[in-house]
Structure formats: structure tokens, C-alpha cells
Automatic annotation (TrEMBL):
This is Acyl-CoA dehydrogenase family protein. Residues 28-139 form the Acyl-CoA dehydrogenase/oxidase N-terminal domain. Pfam families: Acyl-CoA-dh_C, Acyl-CoA_dh_1, Acyl-CoA_dh_M, Acyl-CoA_dh_N. Residues 463-569 form the Acyl-CoA dehydrogenase-like C-terminal domain. Belongs to the acyl-CoA dehydrogenase family.
């Protein structure tokens, strides 16, 4: 893969070559084997015990976590020096995707290996890493992450839990509580955030069993019922001073960096969930007969299966594109060298370059899975509302994802906000590009020839970028720094960015397949071309709608009409027959009875 410039958000102002991204078609033999190992564990150990896990059997969940640790499935992100595998992010992403079918158990694994373990990987001292990471990688100790409080959710820095250093300087005494803590019923150690002296937001490693540390009752949840979710309480709990994670007062650095990875890993899990839902719906549609034939033969059911498959394809393309970028940044960070003890912090900083893309992945993937799950239930009809069918559980389980790791509303606010911060710091020539575009928009825009496969889609993605810059430029001109208070406009800009990144990810992946010109993959490539064509056309309709809504809030009268005329020029392109394309896509899904590329 060609080296990228390491600036998150660059996709809105530059076009990229297909060679600049990683796709599932690029998996190495080793990565395929890792995915197969996870699949074997899922089929052999987890799926047969599914009902017991869903009944919240702590003992079984811990036993299976230990087994996963023995197989190396918990140590992908832990350095080899501390008992892990030290795998690349594409490999760990594939693990997260594959294990997603384990439902509640996948959440237990994800909380442990991600937000539970990574704070120590990235920010732990050598002593902390040596003490905790081997056990976490092996599954002999289970981790939990404690940020949310009864009075602070999205406003994480508003935490009320306090920590005060004792007179001897040996321990910090914690008081307060945390809410909705995954794995809390059986975890051995907890990453806990508290304010030292009520002011300095700080992270601590807290071990189970300390005096004054107690676990509340299990929450009765809508979904993910097989995962443990309890409140925890601190009543003068003494935590050794050497268990401060990072620096006193710098807990926000840990929290925000870990959220980046948490959001990305959540998106990876949504890929696996969407693929499973497609397979369940396709198999049911083939087996269920109405009016004398399988319902899969009816065009409206086929259109649903096509839309579901497209959503999974686009999400998968986004997730592995981002994983490849993160890997590249990590390699650059390692090549730069430096103190070995600071490697984790440098890795977190490298990953933070793509904080914006992590939020984009999180929002798109969680909403795509919700859509796919909903359609899967609809295809099942009344049976989809019955617990005997897994789509009922997928539907319930998927809903929490839009709340986890920062609500989708918060992430939407972060996306354009992060972009603007990069621009103001000189990391991205966003404002210069927006100003240059204003003159360009006044010129005629004749349509180019669309002779090559995906030429039209590539052109339209470029127009989406111009549309975002035009609308975003107007918003900055009108509101200046006060734009951050215009939440509706920020949300519209975020949605335009999300749709653009999604379109481009799918198109680049498909163009890379076309460049390979592999005869053995001709059918897959044709399917990718058709799915990309459908998605781009429909996504551009969403971009146009978002732009119109934003322009109406930014301009009035003749100025608005001028801007709408420019938008009309930007949106011009020949329409494709999406009905015919979806019938073609659906036929492949129905035949394969699974997610199909």
C-alpha cells in the first residue's frame, strides 16, 4: 500500500488511488488463518453453549474467555513481549468481525481485549504491563472499563468519582460510583476514572476485592442479556499509588484515545453482525413459502436482501480501509523509533490521527447494522418477533451500539469538529480548498464521458466532496467559531462526510478489484461494481438532501436560489436503473444464502 500522509480527514479534499487502501481481498494467508481459528472457536466452543451464555452464566463465560486466551484470541493487540501476539490491526479487526456472531459473548470479549486491556497496552508503565498484560492476554484475568457515571455519560469529564492521596502517599482513596460496566460481574481488574482532589481527571487500575469496592446487581437489559452489566461503588477504596495509569490529571488523554479504538472495534463487530443477519434472512426467505413459492422469489423481498447485502459490503469496505490506515500509521510510528517504554503512547497518538474516521465508522456501521437487523426481522415476518429465531435477538442486541462508545449524536458532532480543529492547526488545507472552490463553482460544469467502469461513480464522489466544501465553507463564513453551537448544521455536515467516506471506500475497493482483472474473481467483481453503483446513486440523493437542508438554514432569498442552482450543477449525472441492479444482486444472495461478494 502506498504511504498515506497520515492526516485524518484528508479524504474530503483529496482523491485517493485504489492502491492506497487495504481491502478484505488483500488478506494474507496468516490473516485468513487467524479468522479461521476464530471461526473454529465460535462454532466448536461458543455456539453449542449459546443458550447458557444468554442466561448470564458467569462461570461459563469466564471458562470460555480462558479458552479463548489459551488459543491466543485475546492477545492480538498485546505485544509479544508481554505474552500477546502483537498482531496488525487488520488481523485484530478480522477477529472482532468473526467473533461478532457470538452475540453477548462477543461483547464480553470485546470489552476485555479493547477498552479493558488497551489502556495498559498504550499507557501502562513497564511494571504495570509486566504485571497485568500476560494474564489479560491469557484470559486468566478479565478486564472491565469504568467511565460512565449516573450523572455523566457523554460528558465524561463531568465525573463525580474522586480520589485523594493518603497522608502516607502510598494510596489514592476512591469514592463514588460507575454505571453500566460491561464484564463487571466477573472482572478481576478495572480501568477506573476519578478526579484527584475533585479536579484532576485521572485513570487508575483497580483490582477486585479491595476494601470498600463493591459490585451492584445486574441490570435487566433490552438486549445483550448474556453479558454482565452492573454498577460499581467505591467507599474509601484504597488504590496503590503505583496503579495510577498514565499521569495524574491526564486521564482524558487515555479516555479519548481508547474511545477511538473502541469505536472502530465496534464498527468491526457490526460487520460480522450484518453478515450474519443477511445469511439468516436469505436462508429463511428460501425456505418460507407463500402463494406457492419461496418468498425469496418475490422482488420486494429480493430488494431487501440486496439492500442488506450492500450495507454490509460498504461497511466492510470502510472498516478495513481504516484498519489499513491505522496499521500504516503504527508502522511509521515504530520506524521513527524512540524510548521503548513510550511505544504504547506513540501508538495511541498514531491511532488518534484517524479519530475522525473512527467516529465515521462507528456511526455508519451501527446504523447499517440496525437497518440490516430490522429488515431481517421484516423478512421473517411474525417469526422474526419470536425468540426461537436469532434475528429477534440480533434486533434487540444491535440497538445498544448507537449508544456505546459515545452516542451517534456525539460522534456526529465530533466529525466536523475534529476536521475544523485540524484545519485551524494547519494540518489540513481545508479552508484554502473551500475558498478555491468558490471560483470553480461559478464556471460551467460539463459532464465528462463515463466510458470506464465506475467512472460515473468516481466523478460523483468528487462532486460530493465539492458539495461538502461548498456548504461547509458557507457555514464557516456565516457562523465562524460559533458554528460549534449550530448542532443541526454540524450534524448535516457530518452526514455528508459519512456518506462521502462510505461511497469512496466502496468505490476504491471495487476499483482495486477491477485493476486486478482476476478471471477467477470476475463474478465477485461484477457484484461489487453493481453494489457500488447502487450505493453511490442512493447516497448522492442523501447528500443532496442534507445539502439542501443546510443551505436553507444558511441563506435566504436570491442567495439561497443561487446556492441551490450551484448544488443542482454538482448533483448532475445520468441515473442508473437501481431496480434492475438490485434484482441482480439479490439473485446472488438468494443463491448463496449468505453475505455475497
Amino acid at each position: 500500500m502506498a504511504q498515506n500522509k497520515g492526516w485524518g480527514g484528508r479524504f474530503v479534499i483529496e482523491d485517493m488511488a485504489p492502491q492506497d487502501i487495504v481491502t478484505p481481498e488483500d488478506f494474507t494467508d496468516e490473516q485468513v488463518m487467524i479468522g479461521e481459528a476464530a471461526r473454529a472457536f465460535l462454532e466448536g466452543e461458543v455456539r453449542p453453549r449459546d443458550a447458557e451464555i444468554e442466561a448470564l452464566n458467569y462461570e461459563l463465560t469466564v471458562k470460555l474467555l480462558r479458552k479463548a486466551g489459551e488459543l491466543g484470541l485475546l492477545g492480538a493487540d498485546v505485544p509479544e513481549a508481554y505474552g500477546g501476539l502483537g498482531l496488525d490491526k487488520v488481523s485484530s479487526t478480522l477477529l472482532a468481525e468473526t467473533l461478532a456472531e457470538a452475540s453477548s459473548f462477543a461483547l464480553s470479549v470485546g470489552a476485555h481485549v479493547g477498552i479493558g486491556t488497551l489502556p495498559i497496552v498504550f499507557f501502562g508503565t513497564p511494571a504495570q504491563k509486566a504485571k497485568y498484560l500476560p494474564d489479560l492476554a491469557a484470559g486468566t484475568k478479565i478486564a472491565a472499563y469504568c467511565l460512565t457515571e449516573p450523572s455523566s455519560g457523554s460528558d465524561a469529564l463531568g465525573a463525580k468519582t474522586t480520589a485523594r492521596l493518603n497522608a502516607e502517599g502510598t494510596h489514592y482513596v476512591l469514592n463514588g460510583s460507575k454505571l453500566y460496566i460491561t464484564n463487571s460481574g466477573f472482572a478481576d481488574m478495572f480501568i477506573v476514572y476519578a478526579k484527584v482532589n475533585g479536579d484532576h481527571f485521572t485513570a487508575f487500575i483497580v483490582e477486585r476485592g479491595l476494601p470498600g469496592f463493591s459490585i451492584g446487581p445486574e441490570e435487566h437489559k433490552m438486549g445483550i442479556k448474556g453479558s454482565s452489566t452492573c454498577p460499581i461503588f467505591f467507599d474509601d477504596t484504597p488504590v496503590p499509588a503505583e496503579n495510577v495509569l498514565g499521569e495524574v490529571g491526564k486521564g482524558h488523554v487515555i479516555a479519548f484515545n481508547i474511545l477511538n479504538i473502541g469505536r472502530f472495534k465496534l464498527a468491526a463487530g457490526c460487520v460480522g453482525g450484518a453478515k450474519e443477519a443477511v445469511a439468516l434472512a436469505a436462508k429463511y426467505a428460501n425456505g418460507r413459502k407463500q402463494f406457492g413459492r419461496p418468498i425469496a422469489s418475490f422482488p420486494l423481498i429480493g430488494a431487501k436482501l440486496a439492500d442488506m447485502n450492500i450495507a454490509a459490503f460498504v461497511t466492510e469496505s470502510m472498516v478495513y480501509r481504516t484498519a489499513g490506515w491505522i496499521d500504516e500509521m503504527l508502522r511509521a510510528s515504530e520506524a521513527a523509533g524512540g524510548d521503548a517504554d513510550g511505544a504504547g503512547a506513540r501508538a495511541a497518538k498514531a491511532i488518534s490521527e484517524y479519530a475522525l474516521e473512527c467516529s465515521i465508522n462507528k456511526v455508519f456501521a451501527t446504523e447499517a447494522l440496525d437497518f440490516v437487523a430490522d429488515e431481517a426481522v421484516q423478512i421473517h415476518g411474525g417469526y422474526g418477533y419470536v425468540k426461537e429465531y436469532k434475528v429477534e435477538r440480533i434486533y434487540r442486541d444491535s440497538r445498544i451500539n448507537r449508544i456505546f462508545e459515545g452516542t451517534n449524536e456525539i460522534n456526529r458532532m465530533l466529525i466536523p469538529g475534529t476536521l475544523m480543529k485540524k484545519a485551524l492547526k494547519g494540518e489540513l488545507p481545508l479552508l484554502r480548498k473551500a475558498r478555491a472552490l468558490q471560483a470553480e463553482l461559478l464556471q460551467p460544469m460539463p459532464l465528462p464521458a463515463f466510458d470506464e467502469p465506475l467512472a460515473k461513480e468516481t466523478y460523483r464522489i468528487g462532486q460530493a466532496k465539492r458539495t461538502f466544501l461548498a456548504v461547509g465553507g458557507l457555514a464557516v463564513q456565516k457562523f465562524g467559531l460559533a458554528l460549534e453551537q449550530q448542532q443541526e448544521t454540524l450534524c448535516l455536515l457530518a452526514d455528508m462526510m459519512i456518506q462521502t467516506f462510505a461511497m469512496e471506500s466502496a468505490a476504491l475497493r471495487t476499483r482495486k478489484m477491477l485493476l486486478r482483472a482476476d478471471p477467477a474473481a470476475a463474478a465477485r467483481t461484477r457484484n461489487a461494481v453493481e453494489m457500488t453503483a447502487v450505493f453511490v446513486q442512493e447516497a448522492m440523493e442523501r447528500v443532496e438532501s442534507h445539502a439542501k437542508t443546510a443551505l436553507a438554514a444558511l441563506e435566504t432569498g436570491d442567495a439561497l436560489q443561487t446556492q441551490l442552482a450551484v448544488l443542482k450543477k454538482l448533483m448532475r449525472a445520468p441515473l442508473g436503473d437501481t431496480i434492475a441492479l438490485k434484482r441482480s444482486i439479490a439473485a446472488r444472495v438468494v443463491k448463496s444464502q449468505q453475505y455475497t461478494l
